[in-house]
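Example (one chain per record):
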Amino acid sequence: MNGPGRIQVFTGEGKGKTTAALGLAVRAIGRGLKVFMVQFLKAPDTSGEHTAVQSLAPMLIIKAMGRKGFIKKQGPDPLDTRMAELALQEACKAMLSGSYDVIILDEVNIAVNLRLISVQRLLEFLDSKPANVEVVLTGRYAHPEIISRADAVQEMKKIKHHFDKGGKARKGFEY
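Predicted structure:
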């Protein structure tokens, strides 16, 4: 990598946070960098990106570490909390391994918002970031302390969406 690694955040209510992170990953791969993405709230083989990137391995590895279904906002299930902690540990292991130039924590902001992991735990992760590694955090509801720590923050803003009129998620477009 040329220059120091930075911390980037893709947040907001609009679509495109994971897509922007994947676009960054493809650009990085095109320059010979290796990318590791851990997905906090997605189960294996549930999104189009899981099969699409197989041909990019080993330059891009995606590890989906969530489970199928939705997490209730009333209080996290202990299993979801454990899975989020394991996902953060996996991201930390990859980041500290020296094998990757870019680490993407997909939907980590929602994991913090749902109290699956604490903002303090995520800040500790960022504190352990080697100087030459780029870290990208995605998901709605980025915590103010994470925004403050980041070098760049992009907010995706929804103007209009077919979900507003009862539209369903479509394979290949929303997942």
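Caption: The first helix runs from residue 17 to 30.
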